[in-house]
Structures are given as C-alpha cells and as structure tokens.
Amino acid sequence: xxxxxxxxFVATVVAIGSACNKEKVxxxxxxxxxxxxxxxxxxxxxxxxxxxxAANPLTVDGVALGRKLFYEKMxxxxxxxxxxxxxxxxxAFDDPFPFSKGTSGAIGNRNAMAVVNLAWNKRFxxxxxxxxxxxxxxxxxxxxxxxANTWPIVMLRLQFTxxxxxxxxxxxxxxxxxxxxxxxxxxxxxxxxxSFDSRFDKYFYQGDSAALTVPEQRGLELFTGKAxxxxxxxxxTMFTDNMFRNNGLDINPAxxxxxxxxxxxxxxxxxxxxxxxxxxxxxxxxxxxxxxxLEQVVDFYSSQxxxxxxxIDEHMPDxxxxxxxxxxxxTDLVAFLKSLSDSSFLTNKAFSDPx
Length: 355
What we know:
There is one protein chain. It is built from 14 helices and two strands. It has helices at 2-20, 41-47, 60-70, 83-86, 133-142, 151-159, 164-172, 179-191, 199-204, 214-224, 259-262, 294-303, 327-338, 343-347; strands at residues 244-245, 271-272. Strands 1-2 form a two-stranded antiparallel ribbon. The radius of gyration is 22 Å and the shape is globular.
C-alpha cells in the first residue's frame, strides 16, 4: 500500500510539474540530431558498425543527457554516489577497488566491469543476466548494495531539478521523466565510450612499426601463439569473444557465475570474458578480484589453472604441468598487455563529468 501511495504521489507531482513547465515548450526545441561515433575502419571490418537499438538511437542531446546522468549522484538514495563512482574514467570506467562500496557502506561481491566498447555486446554483467545496455543501466539504482534507491524517488528528484525537465524534452520530446528515459539516456552515453587508440592499434592496424617495443612485439607473438590468450580474448579489435567461460580458477567455484542466471549446472563457474583493452588500468582482476597485478594473472594461466574445475572451458586444454612460460616470456606478455592502454580514452573530456 505504501508503495502504491508513493507511486500515486509521484504521478501527481510529475503532472503538476509538467503543467507548470508547459509554457517552456515553445522556448526549448525538440529537434533530435543524430550522433555518429567515430570508429576506425578496421574495427568495422572485424565487428561491424556501432549499433544502437531502433527504439533508442544516438542523438546529440540524448548522449549529453546520459553523460550528465552518469555522473548524477541523485540516482542514489543518499545522493552520494553515481554511476561514475564505481566506473571511473581514469580506470577505464572500472573501479580500482576490489569490490565497490554502496551508499550504506555495504560491499559488493564481484569486481565492477569496465564500461568500454559495450555497443558491440549482447549480454552484460559477469553472469550475463541483462541483454541490453538499457537493462544494465537500470539495475544499480535499485540494487540494495549499490544505490539502494527506488525509481519513483529518482523520477521525483529529477522532475523538480532544473534543468532536467528541459534536457529530457530536448532529448526525448517530453518533460515527464520516467525510468525508461533515464536508462535510455545513460545507455546512449555508454555506447559512445569506445577505445581503439592504443599503441597496439598504431602498430598492428596503422602500420607504425615503432609503436611497440621489441619485448612488446615478443609478447604479441606469445599472445597469439604459445600463451594461447587469443583463444578467448580475440584479437578482432575487441580483445574478447563476449562469451561466458570457466577458466579454471577453482575446483569448486564459490560463485556459480552464469548458472545464477540460467539455472543450468553446465554453466557453473562460467563468467563473461572481459575485454583486455586498457587492462593495465582495470586492476584488480577476475570476477572476485583475486589477482592484484597482471603478473599474477599471467602466472595463473602459466601454471595454476585448475583442470578439475567443473565445465572447464574447451580453450583451456590439459597443459599437463602448465604452459610453463619462462620468466622472460611472462615479462614480455605483460609488456604487450600494457600496450593495449588508450591514453586518449582515459582523458577524453567528452567522457568526463560535465557538472
């Protein structure tokens, strides 16, 4: 009953607010301008054009609103955290802490995932429980460990905070704010977060033979050869196949992973393969943040994979005693992984806090 009263109250005040703002319709124009995100031709050749849903096409005003909302702390119950609180630009829109802290001080149980090149993704979160970016943007607001808010409260706050009614009108042609439009705007902004300007790109795709050092070049050879990283982190510009795999972290996984979403025992211990772009900025690593450094990650794949883990991926063959990468090979592989950092992405002012 209390929830119904709250929803009714919000609907009433939204209607009043819309009526009070009616005279502004003639001064703020709804004239959506399509926005095209620059994407290198070699990316399009591998994975196609950047796509947005027909119901939520990218527009200049939609992306601008989404950017503002991405940094808006009013989305949380205490108005103290925003999307950007756990997805920091300097960390490739990831969280440098092992687990993100919510408004109550509660700590999550999975490492935040980087928000980068998601326009080409079909499923989101470590367990794939959402199949749209709009859905991905929806969940943190109501998650009791994260923003711990309700959508009626968020709508009420935004409805009576200038300039949001005007910004929503410019983006969507209405001053009546609801959760659907909020997540559409945030998803639009997130689709613009593309990263394809690393030293690796300059070397491999743009023909700059001096862009990588000799150790980094050796690391690239290992990546596609002996170390077999390319089996899952496809070098198709994305450095992920966006699949869900058990990489042999544990004999008996404490976190069921994708199985929590599908309910299938065959999915136990499977997690989304993350992109390796900007990987040097997204420590710690794995869904449970167990590895603090890239060196530890390479050591794991070299000799610590648990072959007895249930549903271990077919791309993790029986190494016997392991890959047994030499010390130099491990150093070279880490050097290559660091060449995937995109400094322009990490500092692009178009992605920073507009407030």
